[in-house]
Specification:
7-stranded antiparallel beta sheet; 8-stranded mixed beta sheet; 28% helix; alpha+beta; 521 residues; 25 strands; 23% strand
Length: 521
């Protein structure tokens, strides 16, 4: 995934249309970080390229222009303090983009700026709604599509808009039909409007710092930087909390901020509004609520008096349901890995034996086993597959034991595939720096549960461990060699047990209090 950020100074922002319950409180203990700190945090998310663009907004009287105000894009940026040093007659928007490129045959760097002066930083993938060719980069295609959107202020779009029908209508119209995970920050030059937001299910992170009296900047970022200094805070890793609540997670949805200059003094004003999704099917999916069904005892325990035909009918219906789920998962897997031209099975006639484009965060449980098996069906057989397993208790950890059993089963059902079980060992008591780093990555989440899950995922995604020497399908653990996975796509299966009551405690709750107790747990 990529890393994106925006730093806005010099604009007086009205947040009243959002009806926010609370805004990050002012505090004498301020979080101090520089633009370089932010870029360093984003660079880890986008190792292929890191770029910045600075948009300056100037009142027209400073340039003897006939317009009320003008804008210009600058390659250079400087470190912004707390926003108090920016001239009251100057507004500044700094866009930062770090790219991990997965699609397209030509390198792409963010931020993107088109000939009209529109600016885009984007973290996501497009799997439908907008046509993206197999050789194309989806960020470039999105930029082209956004450039065709209506340039009137959104509140005028349904009434006085003279839009002729090219493209997808308004920006919310386009983002509402786009399928896939995304977070976006987009400056529309023609309407002098800043657009930003996340997909309806929040599958890409985007944090926000709303302006306060002490820090009037408006900030957006994929991740919070590990601050260069924490002045006056009671930050303690052992507590898993930070004394400063600087960031909050931006709610899912599409936001806009049109910028205007006041006629009296030329100062810039912006009003942030949240927009409704315009795709009816998406709105229905968001508003859908799972219906609680109390299973009947005869559905849970088949009576021995049932006829053979009745049992066959039940098994057949169950089999059809299972196949429907597997078909949907298989289609999802194909979309996830087949639309990338960044890697190829054959390059200049030679097979890339060491190329591992996709890895699975692997515990040996049901989720990861199904993902690995489906990946084997969908991925070119020339590639190896890394199975990344984290253990805090060496070879005796339950997940390590199940992972070993799981890879044996995978080698049995898919013997032609080269499977690599990567053993990633860690000692929680010695991960002081890692805890601090992960706490900044998961911010504003800060509970022990968040930290423990975050540490495990971070170690697995890092991909550094050991494997058995010799054949990648070998199991001789006496010959260990260090190994770092270079996979650019990581698959993780999680949530099925939580959503479908798959844990043993759910069964115990059901025995004692039926479905109501399960729902409470």
């Amino acid at each position: 995934m990529c890393g994106i950020a925006l730093l806005v100074s010099g604009i007086r922002i009205d947040l009243s249309p959002l009806h926010l319950d609370s805004i990050s409180p002012s505090s004498k203990a301020q979080l101090v970080f520089s633009l370089d700190d932010l870029k360093a945090a984003l660079k880890r998310r986008g190792p292929d390229s890191l770029g910045t663009k600075k948009l300056l907004l100037l009142p027209s009287n400073t340039l003897n222009s006939g317009n009320s105000w003008v804008s210009s894009v600058n390659e250079e940026t400087h470190v912004l303090g707390n926003g108090l040093g920016v001239s009251e007659y100057l507004a500044e928007l700094v866009f930062v983009g770090a790219t991990l490129q997965l699609r397209g045959v030509n390198p792409v760097s963010q931020p993107l700026v088109d000939s009209s002066g529109n600016i885009l930083v984007y973290n996501g993938e497009i799997f439908g709604g907008i046509g993206v060719g197999s050789d194309n980069n989806d960020t470039e295609i999105l930029m082209q599509s956004l450039g065709k959107c209506c340039s009137c202020r959104y509140q005028e779009h349904t009434t006085t808009c003279n839009f002729k029908g090219q493209g997808k209508g308004s920006v919310p119209d386009l983002l509402s039909v786009m399928k896939g995970p995304w977070a976006i920050i987009y400056w529309q030059e023609s309407s002098k409007t800043l657009w930003f937001g996340r997909d309806a299910f929040g599958r890409r992170s985007l944090l926000v710092h709303w302006p306060t009296m002490d820090d009037p900047r408006f900030l957006l970022s994929s991740v919070s930087p590990t601050s260069s200094s924490l002045q006056g805070s009671d930050f303690e890793v052992e507590k898993g909390t930070s004394g400063i609540k600087f960031w909050e997670e931006l709610s899912c949805g599409i936001f806009s901020m049109p910028v205007d200059a006041t006629k009296s003094d030329g100062r810039f004003l912006g009003e942030i509004k949240k927009h409704e999704w315009t795709n009816v099917m998406l709105k229905e999916l968001i508003e859908w609520e799972r219906v609680s069904v109390e299973p009947k005892s005869e559905e849970l325990h088949f009576s021995r008096s049932k006829s053979l035909n009745a049992e066959c009918d039940t098994n057949l219906a169950s089999s059809v349901s299972v196949q429907n789920v597997l078909t949907a998962l298989r289609e999802s897997m194909m979309r996830r890995i087949s639309q990338h031209k960044i890697y190829q099975a054959v390059t200049f006639g030679a097979r890339q034996k060491e190329t591992v484009p996709v890895a699975v965060l692997f515990s040996g449980g049901l989720d990861s086993m199904i993902l690995a098996a489906l990946l084997d069906e969908c991925l070119d057989p020339n590639y190896e597959i890394d199975l990344l397993n984290v253990s805090f208790d060496g070879e005796s950890a339950p997940d390590r034991i199940s992972a070993k059993a799981g890879v044996k089963e995978l080698r049995r059902v898919a013997p032609l595939r080269r499977w690599r079980l990567v053993h990633i060992d860690a000692d929680l008591s010695k991960l002081t720096w890692e805890k601090k780093h992960v706490l900044s990555l998961i911010n504003p989440a800060n509970t022990y549960m968040d930290l423990n899950i975050g540490i495990a995922l971070w170690l697995a995604a890092h991909g550094e461990g050991w494997m058995s020497e010799g054949s990648s399908n070998g199991i001789d653990e006496d010959n260990r060699v260090n190994y770092i996975s270079r996979a650019r796509i990581l698959l993780v299966g999680s949530g099925a047990d939580e959503q479908c009551a798959g844990y043993g405690r759910h069964k115990t709750k059901y025995r004692h209090g039926r479905s109501a107790s399960v729902m409470m747990s």
